[in-house]
Amino acid sequence: MARRLILLRHGQTTYNATSRMQGQLDTELSEEGRQQARNIAPVLTEMGVAKIVASDLSRAAVTAQIVAEHLELPVTYDARLRETHLGQWQGKTHAEVDGADGSVRAHWRNTPTWAPPEGESRIDVAQRARPVVDELMEHFDGWDDAAVLLVAHGGTIAALTSSLLDLEISQYPMMKSLRNANFAQLQALPRYGEPDTGVQWYLEAWNQGLTV
């Protein structure tokens, strides 16, 4: 049976608006971010969502709650969906992180195994978040021919998608972060060949939504 996964990035925060790096700081949605969540909710209502799971950080949790009100579904929270821990970069602006070396953030974006000082790499994030989906595949009975909505963060969604698609580590940078309150859609189908070989995930849409 086909299983669809929708990965929604949270709405805008004041940190997003001022190019400040959040990581796992528990920042809140701006009023624009709340409106973005309200705007995308009717779009998601038409997508057959049967379950909502969200990061427990406020910006994702509140986005999920706004959407859930329209879908008339409960929200469960999972800390494994938190954003990348950015270590010493958290709370700093892009300019402050760049400092004397303007290439450091580009190196981070293009090297999935590299982590900011005292932070996580993209591979670390993928390994943390992937079990959330694997456990849903095994235990959530209502998923067949329906969609599960995960509400999370740009870095987490990019890393998780790369893992689900079985990309080579060198290919992880191909997945650019979603815009605020935009989403990706994936579908899992049984693998061809011998029985019990699991599923193959396919990317159906990326960076979809109303945010431009």
TrEMBL record:
Xref: Pfam families: His_Phos_1
InterPro entries, per this entry?
His_Pase_superF_clade-1, His_PPase_superfam, PG/BPGM_mutase_AS, Phosphoglycerate_Mutase
What SUPFAM superfamilies does the entry give?
Phosphoglycerate mutase-like (SSF53254)
List the active site: 10 (tele-phosphohistidine intermediate), 83 (proton donor/acceptor)
Where along this sequence does the record place binding of substrate?
Answer: 9-16, 59
Q: Alphabetically list the UniProt keywords.
A: Hydrolase
Task: Tell me the Gene Ontology biological-process terms attached to this UniProt entry.
Answer: negative regulation of glycolytic process; regulation of pentose-phosphate shunt
The terms describing its cellular component in GO are: cytosol
Molecular function terms in GO for this entry? fructose-2,6-bisphosphate 2-phosphatase activity
Q: Which PANTHER family match?
A: FRUCTOSE-2,6-BISPHOSPHATASE TIGAR
What this protein is called in its record is Histidine phosphatase family protein
Lineage of the source organism?
Bacteria, Bacillati, Actinomycetota, Actinomycetes, Mycobacteriales
